[in-house]
Amino acid sequence: MTRTDDDPPEWAKERAREMMAAGDEEAADDPADAAESPDPDDGRVPDVPVEAVEEAERLTRLAREAESAEPTPEIEQAAEQYRERRDALAAEYGYTARVREEDDALVLYPDEWMEDGTVRLDRVEDTDRAVEVSLSGPGDADRYREVAAYNEAVAAAVAEREAAVHARTAETFAAFMSNHYVRTVDDATPEMRAEFREEYLVRNGWPTDEQLDAVDESLSVIASVADGVEVDDAEVADVNDPAGDESDDAGGSADAAGSPDTSDSA
User: Fold this and answer.
1) Where does the DUF7108 domain lie (predicted)?
2) Which domain range does residue 126 map to?
3) What pLDDT band is residue 243 in, cutting at 50, 70 and 90?
4) N or C: at which end does the chain have fewer Cβ atoms within 10 angstroms?
5) Which residues of 52-198 form beta strands (DSSP E)?
6) What's the pLDDT band for 13 if we cut at 50, 70, 90?
7) Domain count of the chain?
8) At 99, phi and psi to the nearest 5?
9) Residue of higher predicted confidence among 117 and 183
10) How many CA atoms does the CB half-sphere of 173 hold within 13 Å?
11) Is residue 75 part of a domain?
12) Same domain, 229 and 254
């Protein structure tokens, strides 16, 4: 067969086929190639776990609660410690915590967006990386009143049915769960019970030695009595696990982060 000037010789075609086949085998054997094209789902936005966001919110609320009391050096120190713990937690994930005053929201900004404590708008590439949590969203007051009323009812029931030592602890535990977590006493996690037993009761409950010795028994008594307290189950479920925007806020992105307010406070 006559070969044109544009048609390469057969040996060249064969050599090209061999080189292409060798290249395909190397690509299949080299896992580094896969790393060069990462799965877009591998990246997490935002980069802060929901549990860390919830803890940052809790510490922010504790700082506020401390500052709402009559100012003393001890109160001011406690509030500052809460903020320091919150900021250290955010820093573990490369974030900076700020409270946006105009809509009362806790916002966690990626550190690279910040300069001298101020958000630099020119550094914001993906607003979804910010995290926003409302500190006084609609319905908060209603939920608090419902939870507090239920917890007080449980404490009153303990006072009616059990020994005085358990009644005093029940009253303190009811206030702790209402004010710190806005959750019912029978919805307390083991971590919350430990915090109450080891920190809150000792520092804020003015417990007697008898109370401290019986605190574990008292918590069991409270849980047992709570089982018999009549309450609207649906209403309490909504309070302990509110549906709607609140659950999304805890781990969601900040829609308003597209135009962050540089006047955020700590």
Assistant:
1) 48-137, 142-227
2) 50-137+246-258
3) very low
4) N
5) 95-100, 105-110, 114-115, 118-119, 131-134
6) low
7) 2
8) -105, 120
9) 183
10) 37
11) yes
12) no
